[in-house]
Amino acid sequence: MNVRRVLPPDAIESIDDPSFTRGYDGDSDDSVLVVEPDGGPARAYPILILNYHEIVNDVLESRAPESQPESQGDSGEAVDGEPVAISWCPLCGSAVVYDRIVDGRELTFGVSGKLAEDDLVMYDRETDSEWKQSTGESIAGPMEGRSLSIRTGSMMTAGRFEEEYSDGVVLDRPEGERSVVAPAEDGDGLVTEKKNIDYTVDHYAEYIEGDWLGSRSRETSRSWDRTDVAAKEVVLGIESDGEALAVPRSFVREEGTVRVTVGGRDVVILEGDEDLHAYQDPGFEFERDADDRYAGDGTTWDGATGRAEDGRTLQRVPARRLFAFAWQADHGPDSFVLPERETKT
Questions:
Q1: Which of 83, 199, 225, 274 has CA atoms 20 to 30 A from the CA of 254?
Q2: If we measure between CA atoms, which residue out of 258, 247, 237, 250 comes closest to residue 317?
Q3: Are 155 and 275 in contact (CB under 8 A)?
Q4: Closest by CA position to 110, among listed 92, 91, 87
Q5: Cβ–Cβ under 8 Å, residues 322 and 93
Q6: pLDDT value at position 263?
Q7: What is the pLDDT of residues 77-97, one digit of tens each?
Q8: How sure is the predictor about 316, in pLDDT bands with cuts at 50, 70 and 90?
Q9: What is the pLDDT of residue 319?
Q10: Residue 328 to residue 118: CA distance in whole angstroms
Q11: Strand pairing of 20-21 and 234-240?
Q12: Chain centroid to CA 338: how far?
């Protein structure tokens, strides 16, 4: 694994005390990462904010705290709610939600300033262990070899979030000066500076549209020699019982739905609001219509939320949303479900 330092630790500042607001004051087409707690309203984390911070150390509300297993913080006190890490790697398009409790201990995560195969390397402040963001595995330190538990999350537009979750809340923009990474004036490397961030600016837009991978430099770009899936195509990765498969968005668009079995778990992949969503396979067929809705079992289903018009809801499956090149770096070239291959393992 190629691990390299590109910035000092915490040059990109995680959000450790998040606050939330009603409504999103940006463009309705902006992407948000959505988490639905067991208790309390759904939460949306705008990608335009995550681009500048990459990690949010949050605590989700629990539906019935008295029925939840008691977790212990670093000092031994009970943790109120469910600590999670909202993680985002802009270079890999990787959005993953993780539990922050490991062996009964609450960890808080920061941005190490390192990249592992061009993916964000997180570190925890309690043990100084390093964790690869796209896999959740600790790659160095006292926790090396341990893995974080993945939580369910989904991507959609801010406008769709507000339509579907009328009581939902949105991560508020941090106030005051924050560290910002920028190219050095002499063009040699990167520097950090403190200033007020304009969270309406997507400074990764050129990278997303560009033809280079990973580090935002064409000179250090990774190579990609396959033609059956594009390097920056969005894929949804499912892992279960030691097996891993990723489904590209183009395949779902071609087929309408894609079914896979991963580690004995039957999963159906649907598209909704321009992204992919994984659900426990309910065992009946879906037929996609022109409005990106799915007819099945006598009702109509929303691919983005898993909700049906008759009140039923599909069970969301934990998944990793990222670019194809990043998934391949983690799981190898044969870990994709493609049109010419079987969709069962």
A1: 225
A2: 237
A3: yes
A4: 87
A5: yes
A6: 95
A7: 445 789 999 999 999 999 999
A8: very high
A9: 97
A10: 12
A11: unpaired
A12: 22
